[in-house]
Amino acid sequence: MKYGICNLTLIPLRASADHRSEMVSQLLFGEAYKVTQANKLWLKIAVVDDGCEGWIPIEQHLEVSKEFFREVKNSPMILSDELVDVLENEQGQLTTIVMGSRLPLLDKNRLCLNEHTYHYQGRVTTGKLEKTKLIPTAFRYENVPFLWGGKTPFGLDSAGFTQIVYKLNGIHLKRNAAAQATQGEALSFIEESSPGDLAFFDNQEGEIIHVGMILENHHIIHVDGKVRVDQLDQSGIFNRALQKHTYKLRVIKKVV
Prior knowledge:
Elements lengths: L1 E4 L4 E5 L8 E6 L3 E7 L3 E6 L5 E5 L5 E2 L1 H9 L3 E3 L3 E6 L4 E5 L11 E4 L2 E4 L4 E3 L7 H6 L11 E2 L2 E2 L1 H11 L8 H4 L4 E3 L10 E5 L5 E7 L4 E5 L3 E6 L3 E4 L4 E11 L2
Antiparallel strand pairs: 1-4, 1-7, 2-3, 4-5, 5-6, 8-13, 9-10, 9-12, 11-12, 14-15, 16-22, 17-18, 17-22, 18-19, 19-20, 20-21, 21-22
């Protein structure tokens, strides 16, 4: 089996081996993966942090040894805590990174990916933080536009939003809303929840299609066109601008 790590700002993760295919997620700088399938132009990979699978172009693959892969996998997760920042290599070339990018084996502002050495001077976050930190982190993404498969300050989907907010606070969430809904403890009423808990919403077929983060006073922050705040009740999300419910509540989960 081959292994790799993202050394670019981000790499789109496609549903099939085609640039026109649906983007199911994104690899951010420093995220490691296993190669599970290959053809001449594309690799199918499984991301270590959340198990998400998809295809990336072979020219965007940076291969690493099994030993390095294991070292990164087992090391503490150190993440960039700046909305946008840069890494500088030994030649003075800059690589842009976004909030939530992983900085593997960072030591004294220096990290190495194979023979590639980078220096980073920005703010980082590591370890599990208090639950109260979730909401301030969520509001750092306010007004970020919706992007299917996205998980960056330039665009994200509902599950990408909750996943990256939790990740920045040291808490693991799976990649899509239905998978996230399998985590944590179910609550019976909104009144039992606290800020930072997750609310999930389904369609007419009963499939969970949306997730948001509960705020105080029966409000929710979620992605609907952009990261926004709406009202939440036992029926679902009420959009004041549209004067109607836009998502039907399925379940509330306390993950932390």
